[in-house]
Write a structure and sequence with these properties.
The complex is a heterotrimer.
Chain A lengths: L4 H21 L2 E4 L6 E4 L3 H7 L2 H33 L6 H12 L2 H11 L6 H8 L13 H29 L3 H9 L4 H12 L1 H15 L4 H6 L11 H11 L3 H26 L9
Antiparallel strand pairs in A: 1-2
Helix pairs in contact in A: 1-13, 2-13, 3-7, 3-10, 4-7, 7-10, 8-9, 10-13, 12-13
Chain B lengths: L2 H6 L2 H30 L2 H4 L14 H9 L1 H34 L5 H10 L5 H14 L6 H25 L3 H9 L4 H12 L1 H17 L2 H6 L7 H6 L9 H21 L1 H6 L9
Chain C lengths: L1 H21 L5 H5 L3 E8 L14 H10 L2 E8 L1 H13 L7 E5 L2 H4 L12 H5 L10 E2 L2 E2 L1 E3 L6 E5 H6 L9 H11 L5 E3 L12 H11 L16 H13 L13 H9 L3 E6 L3 H5 L11 E4 L15 E5 L6 H11 L2 H11 L6 H4 L2 H6 L3 H7 L12 H16 L5 H19 L1
Parallel strand pairs in C: 1-2, 1-3, 8-9
Antiparallel strand pairs in C: 3-11, 4-5, 6-11, 7-9, 7-10
The chains are: A mainly alpha, B mainly alpha, C alpha/beta.
């Protein structure tokens, strides 16, 4: 307990009041705009309003798609990258440093960089695709709902893969060579040894990756803010962007907290489910 | 098929891996390359269709302007270093023992506690920003580098605990048992046996904490005013209401990412040699 | 940078106070006064920043501080983040600033501001356009002073117009449409705008407000409830929809005005509604391919004539300020005729004082000043309300749907009207 207590105390000291306050705020109507600041208890009214709000449902739908795709893509791509970099041909330090860079670039700059890359009129992506003859005309990548949401997704995957891949690479390197040798002795081919040796051993790492990525994908905000502002016509409004807009642009603190609490509840359920499903139940660890 | 061949693969698999590595390099480096090119180009060349990469358009002006005009950048880098190092060091110092205890020691309800720690990450920062601001300003600690570093513990500590807990879980039990037989207490076991073999995962956790603190924007925006401004805020200064000085912004981004890359190069052995030091043999 | 700046200022102010202390008699009152420390929250250049934060009138600023025994500390932030930081501080009830910049947010933050502008000297007020106070007035009280004349006008590429055989800029909606159609050729677009962000001044909704007023419509009735579900409201949106074939299709994805401005400055669009500040950017050879080819004109007239919206860059004083009088004096200094003149000559931001706008030197340096002044003779209401952000998101989103062909103009306006009615009623 001496080991755990300091961390718990620090977390409680920083987050205790804000988290409790944010839950309480969700039950209040807080008015800052105009004449005077007012605060009153309204029970579950914010949530009733929320569930009747079509923008909320649109954002919820966008977020579900975004989050599910993000977790799948990031997990698969990261696993692929980790396997590549764990292969003798990919062990060079160059690859590992390159791996980190997309994640190390400040997100503020990263988002603006992508805005320019994807620009419909002078973006370099259009320039490259057109000179390769893949497209005939410059495309408005962020102009239609489906395309805009998917480009946000691609950019966020690009930014998220490095850390998860690093985590998985770490896991892969802990798979004992002796296990592979044993599998080889048993006549396992590359696929079998991947399925029966590699995957089970890094199951814990994959579980962490999925849980963390789920949490993060439900909190995506900066990319939306810079690239699309939720547009066109709320097609890329994700829940956390909505929470931001309502809290900081509309100054509707209670309603914003209600949205944030929905994000919290959804994340909590999903993460709980994943941990329960995926966390390896190893003997030996006293838990 | 020999064992070595199984590991390296045949010509087909080797070709596939080469292709895979090439795709990986283009995917990772392409946008980064464009970032660097953008930082070296005049804006009028960047808005051409397609962007005009003729040598005459390349310039170092963006860098000289950013370095010359923005003493703010220097201060931002300094602040970010302090915030990131502080937050990383404390997160590791508090997180490693907690992770170890939650992984290996008979802590009651360890799983529940671990999940509670993770749950603190589930409420979006946007929701806690205003209460957090009220808390910090009541304490008179707005615009203070260290208070920002403490706030960063709120996301660094839980993630560090979760990363490390996963690794500690898979340490062979034999090591600790041997220590216990020799009459070594858990503090000593942790300090002399567990930590030394955990340098690589500790490095990974440290890299994570450092980068996240280095790049954090939203709390920095809310909780600083002028003196404690960190690098991301300085970079954001190049995007105004009517104008984004894109080249300069990218130049600032290149400058700000350099320390992180230097760190990565410095610690590449830990990252590269990775997490597989002979400890798994037991 | 700011550290050393404020420290230097402090030393100077200290010296000034010391000098005052040495003086006998009538100076004693000032001698006893401690140096007043003012805290000003302002955007960073190139957005409109005050002397000392932007490079103009720095000497005069030092003199003002010395003469007023005041120190001024600037807290500057990139423009897009200003609102968030202000909102957080006000929401927590503690604002550390004496003076803040404001942009259409005065009704929103009104309860945290003082109506100091009612006490401005008559000579100054008389030199400001009366309508410039409309966006900073709430319930008849004036909470801010606009310090730069920033109205949307039409910017166009002279060369493109000449090549298409047009000798003058479009004067009315019909000409605007014809010009748009004729100018869309050779990979260029007649018009470019930033329709990506629905919200705020300069967002999609605000562009529609321009057309709405040109059509003779208004957002709100006397009772504060929306009245734009009207012939004019639909006609305004229909005009925007009709222009779409000659508008850069990327416009719907441009989330900030800079994205669209770059297209104009690269010479691949011929016309754009833009702010006076654009003039400098358009003639900067580092950014622009159309140096010397840009001109500006009053926006094309709709059925009710020309109209625009107001950028509303204003100085306000917070209620929590301990030195509101000194703060007001500083704002009066910002609006001093000489400072205003240096503001336009050194930074490109137009002055707001009519006398300075009429100055020949100013008109020579900023040839578009005359156009903006002319534009100011027509309506330029930005329709700011306490829930302006919410209203513009609701309206702008519906406008985007119409522009993308998901809804008819009439349907979009009807839906926007319902949404805004709900917002206004909830405010109560």
């Amino acid at each position: 307990m001496v080991f755990v207590a300091p961390a718990m105390i620090v977390l409680a000291a920083i987050l205790g009041f804000p988290i409790v306050d944010s839950i309480l705020l969700a039950l209040q109507h807080v008015q800052l705009t105009g004449g005077a600041v007012s605060q009153s208890w309204v029970g579950l009214e914010n949530f009733q309003r929320l569930f009747a709000d079509p923008v909320f449902w649109k954002a919820a739908l966008n977020t579900s798609y975004f989050s599910v795709m993000e977790v799948i893509l990031v997990t698969l791509i990261s696993l692929g990258v980790a396997l590549l970099l764990n292969h003798p041909m990919g062990k060079s330090g160059f690859f590992r440093i390159l791996l980190i860079i997309p994640w190390a670039i400040a997100p503020v700059a990263n988002a603006v960089l992508w805005k320019w890359i994807l620009n419909a009129n002078y973006g370099v992506l259009n320039g490259i695709l057109k000179s390769l003859g893949i497209i005939d005309y410059y495309q408005v990548w962020l102009g239609t709902p489906f395309s805009a949401l998917n480009f946000l997704l691609i950019v966020d995957v690009w930014k998220s893969v490095p850390f998860v891949a690093l985590l998985m690479l770490a896991g892969l390197q802990r798979v004992p060579q002796s296990l592979y040798r044993a599998a080889y002795m048993d006549g396992a081919g590359p696929l079998q040894s991947f399925l029966h040796v590699t995957l089970p051993t890094i199951r814990g790492v994959i579980a962490i990756a999925i849980v963390l990525q789920t949490i993060w994908s439900l909190r995506v905000f900066d990319l939306v803010f810079v690239l699309t502002r939720g547009g066109p016509a709320d097609a890329t409004a994700l829940l956390n962007f909505l929470a931001y807009r309502v809290t900081f642009n509309f100054l509707d603190l209670g309603y914003g907290s209600a949205i944030a609490n929905v994000i919290f509840a959804v994340t909590f359920i999903l993460a709980g489910l994943y941990v329960w499903l995926l966390w390896p139940r190893q003997p030996g660890a006293s838990r | 098929m020999s064992f070595a061949r199984l590991q390296h693969g045949g010509p087909f698999r080797q070709t596939m891996i080469l292709v895979g590595l090439a795709v990986f390099v283009v995917w990772s480096a392409g946008p980064v390359l464009w970032l660097v090119i953008s930082s070296l180009l005049q804006q009028k060349a960047l808005i051409q269709q397609p962007p005009d990469l003729s040598p005459a358009n390349f310039t170092l002006t963006n860098f000289t302007t950013v370095v010359g005009a923005a003493a703010a950048l220097g201060r931002g880098i300094f602040n970010s270093l302090v915030v990131s190092l502080f937050s990383t060091a404390v997160a590791l110092a508090l997180g490693a023992p907690a992770a170890y205890a939650l992984a290996r020691l008979p802590v009651p309800r360890a799983n529940g506690i671990a999940f509670l720690i993770l749950a603190t990450q589930m409420l979006p920062g946007i929701a806690i920003a205003i209460p957090l601001f009220i808390l910090i300003s009541k304490l008179g600690l707005i615009d203070n580098v260290l208070s920002l570093g403490v706030v960063y513990l709120s996301f660094n500590l839980p993630i560090v605990i979760w990363i490390l807990r996963g690794f500690f879980t898979s340490i062979p039990v034999g090591l600790e048992k041997a220590a216990a037989v020799d009459g070594v207490g858990i503090f000593a076991t942790f300090w002399y046996i567990v930590l030394p073999i955990s340098i690589p995962p500790l490095t990974a956790a440290a890299v994570f904490a450092f980068v996240e603190a280095w790049n954090e924007f939203f709390f920095a925006l809310i909780l600083t005013r002028q003196h404690a401004q960190t690098v991301p805020l300085v970079i954001a200064q190049f995007a105004g209401q009517y104008q984004t000085v894109f080249g300069q912004m990218m130049a600032a981004a290149v400058i700000s990412v350099t320390p992180v890359i230097l760190l990565a190069i410095l610690f590449r052995n830990q990252i590269i040699r990775g997490f597989a030091d002979g400890m798994m043999k037991g | 940078m700011f550290n050393s700046l404020s420290r230097r200022n402090f030393l100077q102010a200290g010296a000034a106070a010391g000098a005052a202390a040495a003086m006998p008699g009538f100076m004693t009152r000032q001698a006893h006064a401690e140096a007043v420390a003012l805290n000003v929250f302002a955007p960073l250049p190139p957005d409109p920043a005050p002397p000392g934060a932007a490079k103009f009138s720095e000497e005069a600023f030092e003199k003002w501080k010395a003469a007023n025994a005041a120190t001024v500390e600037y807290e500057t932030l990139a423009w897009p983040q200003l609102h968030d930081r202000m909102a957080t501080a006000f929401a927590s009830g503690s604002s550390p600033w004496d003076i803040t910049y404001n942009c259409g947010w005065v009704p929103e933050f009104q309860s945290f501001l003082t109506p100091y502008a009612d006490k401005l000297p008559k000579a100054l007020v008389d030199d400001l356009p009366a309508s410039s106070f409309s966006t900073v007035t709430v319930d008849g009280k004036r909470y801010g002073t606009i310090f730069t004349l920033s109205l949307l006008t039409l910017f166009y590429n002279k060369e493109h117009l000449e090549m298409a055989g047009f000798k003058a800029p479009p004067k009315n909606w019909d000409e605007f449409k014809t010009y748009g159609k004729e100018l869309t050729r050779d990979g260029r677009h007649g018009l470019v705008l930033n329709y990506g962000d629905p919200a705020g001044i300069g967002g999609t909704a605000s562009y529609w407000m321009v057309f709405l007023q040109q059509a003779g419509g208004k957002m709100y009735g006397e009772d504060g409830l929306p009245i734009f579900k009207s012939e004019q409201g639909v006609a305004a949106l229909q005009m925007m929809v009709d222009m779409m074939p000659s508008t850069d299709p990327g416009s719907i994805s441009y989330a900030s005005i800079n994205d669209a401005t770059n297209v104009l400055l690269s010479g691949r669009a011929s016309m754009m509604m833009n702010w006076p500040f654009m003039w400098n950017a358009g003639n900067d050879p580092n950014q622009s391919q159309v140096v010397g080819k840009l001109a500006s004109a009053v926006l094309p007239a709709g059925p009710a004539g020309s109209a625009s919206i107001d950028g509303t860059d204003a100085w306000t004083i917070t209620k929590s300020s301990k030195n509101p009088e000194k703060a007001q004096q500083l704002i009066e200094f910002y609006l001093d005729a000489d400072v205003q003149k240096r503001q336009v000559l050194d930074t490109g931001w137009l002055p707001i004082r009519l006398s300075v706008l009429a100055d020949p030197e100013v008109q020579a340096k900023a040839p578009n000043a005359a156009v903006v002044l002319e534009q100011a003779k027509h309506p330029y209401d930005s329709f700011v309300t306490p829930d302006y952000n919410q209203v513009t998101v609701a309206v702008g989103t519906e406008v985007q749907k119409a522009l993308q062909g998901q809804k008819t103009a009439a349907q979009a306006i009807a839906d926007a009207h319902d949404a805004v009615t709900a917002i206004v009623k909830r405010r109560g």
